[in-house]
Amino acid sequence: MLRYLPFLLVLALWIYAFIDCLNTPEEEVRGLPKVVWVIIVLLFGEVLVGPIAWLVAGKVRRAPANGSTPSAWHRNHRTEYVAPDDNPEFLKSLKEGNKKDEDLLKDWEADLRRREEELKRRERDDES
After folding, report:
1. What is the pLDDT of residues 45-96, one digit of tens each?
2. Cβ atoms of 85 and 72 closer than 8 Å
3. Residues 90, 98: contact at Cβ < 8 Å?
4. What's the domain range around 109?
5. Quick check: pTM over 0.85?
6. Where do the Cardiolipin synthase N-terminal domain residues begin and end (predicted)?
7. Strands, E, within the chain: which ranges?
8. Does one domain contain both 11 and 56?
9. What is the pLDDT of residues 1-57, one digit of tens each?
10. Based on the domain organization, do 14 and 53 belong to the same domain?
């Protein structure tokens, strides 16, 4: 198993660099066009030159500021997580859903009562 470890590490690095290169937006790619970086990663993946070149020089890397995520969008647009039981909109939607279910249940019960009365009436009419 250990003799396959270097091969597996090279393969994992190659796959990671390839997927990272494909998922990186064009404006975050440095030096060469994104298509050229994909070709470099694919062609030179076996000798690690392509993946390492991509990871070192191909992508703009940003250091996290103040422990936040590196994305500028996330730094400027933080959303606070609110538990469902503290979220008024979620609680309102539950009440509305329960109200709809209760109305539907009342309609079914009224329909069932109507059918039962109709059956009883037919039975009485058949007996007489």
Report:
1. 777 888 888 888 887 776 655 555 545 544 455 556 677 778 888 888 888 8
2. no
3. no
4. 83-128
5. no
6. 12-58
7. none
8. yes
9. 688 888 888 889 999 998 999 998 888 888 888 899 999 998 887 778 888 888 888
10. yes
